[in-house]
TrEMBL record, chain A:
<protein>
    <recommendedName>
        <fullName>Electron transfer flavoprotein subunit beta</fullName>
    </recommendedName>
</protein>
<dbReference type="GO" id="GO:0009063">
    <property type="term" value="P:amino acid catabolic process"/>
</dbReference>
<comment type="function">
    <text>The electron transfer flavoprotein serves as a specific electron acceptor for several dehydrogenases, including five acyl-CoA dehydrogenases, glutaryl-CoA and sarcosine dehydrogenase. It transfers the electrons to the main mitochondrial respiratory chain via ETF-ubiquinone oxidoreductase (ETF dehydrogenase).</text>
</comment>
<feature type="domain" description="Electron transfer flavoprotein alpha/beta-subunit N-terminal">
    <location>
        <begin position="23"/>
        <end position="213"/>
    </location>
</feature>
<dbReference type="GO" id="GO:0009055">
    <property type="term" value="F:electron transfer activity"/>
</dbReference>
<dbReference type="Pfam" id="PF01012">
    <property type="entry name" value="ETF"/>
</dbReference>
<dbReference type="InterPro" id="IPR000049">
    <property type="entry name" value="ET-Flavoprotein_bsu_CS"/>
</dbReference>
<comment type="subunit">
    <text>Heterodimer of an alpha and a beta subunit.</text>
</comment>
<dbReference type="InterPro" id="IPR014729">
    <property type="entry name" value="Rossmann-like_a/b/a_fold"/>
</dbReference>
TrEMBL record, chain B:
<keyword id="KW-0285">Flavoprotein</keyword>
<dbReference type="GO" id="GO:0051990">
    <property type="term" value="F:(R)-2-hydroxyglutarate dehydrogenase activity"/>
</dbReference>
<dbReference type="InterPro" id="IPR016167">
    <property type="entry name" value="FAD-bd_PCMH_sub1"/>
</dbReference>
<keyword id="KW-0274">FAD</keyword>
<keyword id="KW-0862">Zinc</keyword>
<dbReference type="Pfam" id="PF01565">
    <property type="entry name" value="FAD_binding_4"/>
</dbReference>
<dbReference type="GO" id="GO:0005739">
    <property type="term" value="C:mitochondrion"/>
</dbReference>
<comment type="function">
    <text>Catalyzes the oxidation of D-2-hydroxyglutarate (D-2-HG) to alpha-ketoglutarate. Also catalyzes the oxidation of other D-2-hydroxyacids, such as D-malate (D-MAL) and D-lactate (D-LAC). Exhibits high activities towards D-2-HG and D-MAL but a very weak activity towards D-LAC.</text>
</comment>
<dbReference type="GO" id="GO:0071949">
    <property type="term" value="F:FAD binding"/>
</dbReference>
Amino acid sequence: MKIMVAIKRVVDYAVKIRVKPDKSGVETKNVKMSMNPFCEIALEEALRIKESGLASEVVAVSVGPTQFLETLRTGLAMGADRAIHVEAPEKIYPLTIAKILKALVDVEKPGLLLLGKQAIDNDQNQTGQMVAGLLKWPQGTFASKVVLDKEKQVATIDREVDGGIETLCLDLPAVITTDLRLNQPRYATLPNIMKAKSKPIKKFTLQDLNVEIKSDLEVVEVTEPPKRKSGVILSSVDELIDKLKNEARVI
Amino acid sequence: MEEWKATCRLLTHCKHLFHGRSTPNFQRFCSSGCRCHFNQPSESIKPYIGYYQQELKSFSRPLVSLCMNQWNRCRSQYRLFASQATIIQRRPDFSTISSEDLSYFKNILGEIGVVQDEETLDAVNTDWMRKYKGTSKLMLQPRTVEEVSQILKYCNSRCLAVVPQGGNTGLVGGSVPAFDEVIVSISHMNKIISFDKVSGILVCEAGCILENLIAFLDNEGFVMPLDLGAKGSCQIGGNVSTNAGGLRLLRYGSLHGSVLGLEVVLANGTVLDMLGTLRKDNTGYDLKHLFIGSEGSLGIVTKVSILTPPKLSSVNVCFLACKDYASCLKLLLEAKRKLGEILSAFEFLDHDAMDLVLKHLEGVRNPFPFSMHNFYVLIETTGSSESYDREKLDAFLLNSMENDLISDGVVAQDITQASSCWHIREGIPEALMKAGGVYKYDLSIPVEKMYDLVEEMRVRLDASAKVVAYGHLGDGNLHLNISTPQYDDNILSQIEPFVYEWTSKHKGSISAEHGLGLMKANKIHYTKSPETVQLMASIKKLLDPSGILNPYKVLPPSLFTKS
Ligand SMILES: Cc1cc2nc3c(=O)[nH]c(=O)nc-3n(C[C@H](O)[C@H](O)[C@H](O)COP(=O)(O)OP(=O)(O)OC[C@H]3O[C@@H](n4cnc5c(N)ncnc54)[C@H](O)[C@@H]3O)c2cc1C
Ligand SMILES: Cc1cc2nc3c(=O)[nH]c(=O)nc-3n(C[C@H](O)[C@H](O)[C@H](O)COP(=O)(O)OP(=O)(O)OC[C@H]3O[C@@H](n4cnc5c(N)ncnc54)[C@H](O)[C@@H]3O)c2cc1C
């Protein structure tokens, strides 16, 4: 069985986000970009499934401009067997990505499609669900545990829901999106980084896949959340009561 | 993004609960249960006894009781934790605090600047390692240079001894009183005065915490030229006063290069304005250098002007494994050649240091979970072009692998991974603290010889203690640490004076970057010639004739006893 994993390049999670002065988006120039952490978890899970003998190949897929190749290299250095780069502009919304992924699934015919539950840049949390809908495959979102049964061709996943853990059984092929607690992604080791240099990256254009970019969404403005006012330390209970009465007006 | 961050925070939260000492700030709340106050001697001498460790009771009792008799007569102090049990005497010519003194200080500083509550004093009397403890009854917290000046002028006239204190993260017992010296804390002098975006020159008060300066500069697109594990607590004034080296010395040089100016208050209250903001100024003697690294013995630093380099966007971190020390050295040479201008740190640790960190530090991730190696090297590059730097780094790594200098390695793919690599290296002092007793030596030794000392020490100590080595290999600076379940004078006598003699024989320095403090004041002759030490004593006498500033530290106290 082949596993396909979608990975996205985003502003590194440890970077302090700055909004562009013209409010058209967030600043990405001179900013450290890394693989979306949820995608990293998805890839790690795919690699573990392969290492346990339940899959034969892991294919990493990314959709975006040339710089996304770096993120694919990271994926290959972690252990993906090969990669697919779909050349596209940076700003694409989930439905288009889902269409692209569906087109790639039609070409590659994987038994499992793994995605991060969301990308930490836009937090949209839609792509996995949409591609499952387009493919008419069963979906297991926010997986915190994945167990495959090769014979029965089912995947059993745990998902964290309010008040407990829900367990789902999905018939393969299926779409699974991954949550934080699923695993801890590995480091890219030197030998694997070197090996990754010679692993193939296949390129597709949007025309190749017959997908058109059109979006029903338009970003009007991006602004910073209001700054939290810092607290003050009061010197006495009386002062506190005074503030609660006269400033906060809660008593 | 927010959700990801929040979840990560949640996951690490539980760790932090048990991980208080990950920030040295925390130390005050975590006083270990392994020590207790000694309560046999009479009330009057109690303040001079310092610390006593439970485990040591049995073997050291005869020594202690011997000292007890002396205490009654000459108020000497016996330090069980100090570098070799040294007995130093409180200088009889120093006054003790009177109620007039207190009202004078309250008059200048107000009630809030005069701290006498026991809990706070307990914390500021105790050093970071909990190895040295003074018995000061008073901490002063000035807010302006005028207040510092008034304090010192008064203390000088009253012959009251003073300890300048910054973040109290010093590792040689220099930042806490030896006896009952008045603690002058610089913590409240923490304002940033100016920053010039073109030249990168920052002027700030001495009590600014290093990490706050780093954060301030980050916003401006600059970095501090120094960084060290204690950044969350240590202050720029303390860094300057200890001439701290740290993790980026390899790249940005020592503080003697990056500090452009200082404002210093002398023992008699004179304010020396040397707060230049010029890169070049050859008018007369460059006196600021006297105060860089003088550990509070010549004056109190109140303001600092420092040259900061611009922040570069491309940072790579790799954590490598080497089979032997010779490979680490070859790798260093290669890194200097092949990485050249982008190399920004080259740190090493040995197998025992790694083992200790993995055992004692919460939240550490072993980059090589399936195998242990003899040596580990952390290399950081900092440059301005991601693809260019990456290409250089990859070529260097490939070449080093082909030449068998590296046996394994990982390259951090994001900032989180880079931080966890740094966490291993920066967490060693903390892991050592958790492992029990530790004898710390901070040595400069010609790099080829450096690890011989570690091996000789292992042979000497055999199984009685764990010898842990790490340090700033790029600067020829070894941190040799001997970790024992508890402090033990038998082990200490195996270590000292051997370690100092060995270092001296190999033309090394017995204090590369931590200073001499109380721990090594009497050991200066292992590194400096008698003539040099004499001149230092003359300078000290010139600037501080009564010797009130940080007495018993840095230079041998015997040089100052009046005959
Ligand atoms: C063409 C030219 C270009 C220059 N360009 C520069 C420049 O770019 N930057 C710059 O900073 N300077 C420059 N200078 C001046 C510079 O100070 C000197 O060139 C050089 O540093 C002095 O070295 P010297 O051996 O000639 O010393 P001298 O001229 O012999 O002496 C200079 C001073 O040092 C003392 N001195 C000399 N040797 C010793 C010693 N061994 N021990 C103690 N004291 C000693 C002398 O008593 C004297 O006070 C330039 C000079 C010239 C002529
Ligand atoms: C976890 C850890 C890691 C460390 N790593 C490094 C490292 O990599 N490199 C390195 O060089 N050091 C290191 N150190 C030790 C280092 O010397 C201190 O962390 C720091 O430089 C001292 O700053 P501080 O503000 O804590 O000073 P303190 O500890 O308060 O004081 C240190 C000395 O300076 C004097 N002093 C402090 N402030 C002033 C002032 N304003 N004016 C005059 N004198 C003053 C004190 O009297 C004392 O003698 C480390 C310490 C820890 C705990």
